[in-house]
# Entry
Amino acid sequence: MSAADIAVRIYRDLEPEDFRVLSAIELEMSRHRYVPMSDIVRVCRLPEKEVEYRLSRLDGFGLIYRWVGFYVGYALNTAGYDCLAINALVKADILEAFGKPLGVGKESDVYDALTPSGERVAVKMHRLGRTSFRQTRRVRSYVADRKHISWLYQSRLAAEREFEALKILYPCGVSVPKPVSQNRHIVVMGMIEGEELSRVIEMPEPKGVLEEILLNVRKAYLEAGVIHADLSEFNVILKPDLHILIIDWPQYVRLDHPNADDYLRRDLRNILRFFSRKFGVEGDLEEAVRYVKGNMKLTLV
# Structure
């Protein structure tokens, strides 16, 4: 069972005092790798016996780590962090109920959910700790200049950046999920339905799909001033109506980024190579770059 499955299953069983203890651990993890119980008692302002009971309960639920060394300390695990974020979103009237998992990737879990008004949304839980810590630093510029950063905090930064990107792109008409809300490492967005491009076996009009992808890259560039910087067949969704949705934006860069042109070329090269290899649709990289920058029309063969 994944951390997300544990959090979704356990959340309704948690009591206000449980969340007070989880919140105290979260706060003190900025100062301790494992938080001493005395600090938890001080922060959550519950009697020591009550805190002992809550820690035992949370440990039994699988929401915290218990460490025994020259003192006994506690830390949130991913499921505990999930519960804190879910609780905040429920209290803010953003989420009402969870449905089935929509996907589990290297760096995120995505769930189907409902808002209090009955709107279906996608809940994306960032999971940067699943990949190499060193590799994450290398490819994600927003953590590269930080000497000490936990995987939980990395995931929170990724969620903040993705939500920021969606808020920039969606009003510009770029085909991205609608931004709904964000808390900690969770982004709530419009429903994601369809198939990841890499998994599509047959496509009735591959040329048209490629044109739509490039049009949206152009809109993001010209109207939002944003480059995806990690675009490939793995983060383009082909919806049931055969239109596309571009997802996974935490690595986005602005046009004034020193490597912006390199990132744009890499994005376009990835997409063009995929369509050439899998569907025989050919496009010239330099022509695609000029098209995205607004300098010429696009010709695909």
The domain at 92-190 is CATH 3.30.200.20 (Phosphorylase Kinase; domain 1). DSSP finds eleven helices and 13 strands in the chain.
